[in-house]
Amino acid sequence: xxxxxxxxxxxxxxxxxxxxxxxxxxxxxxxxxxxxxxxxxxxxxxxxxxxxxxxxxxxxxxxxxxxxxxxxxxxxxxxxxxxxxxxxxxxxxxxxxxxxxxxxxxxxx
Length: 109
Description:
With 109 residues, the chain is an all-beta fold.
């Protein structure tokens, strides 16, 4: 996944303890299903995002294993309660084993 950095938005980087936070993230990825043919009639190899994880420090907040029906440049949105400060790390992995990551600091007040 050697494209532009992921776009990540957090509703509040300095929330109060217990406040719900909303995270939106999008990466550029072809999400090729392996069901289409190229101009020469050959099947295009499957290459989709197979795993997404969101962690705050070492705590897993959210995991997703999308299928072939997800559109190009996948967008994800999720919420969680602010309980502790730390680095929110988002991590994507695709069929080829390539990964991309993004991070945002969260400081609970």
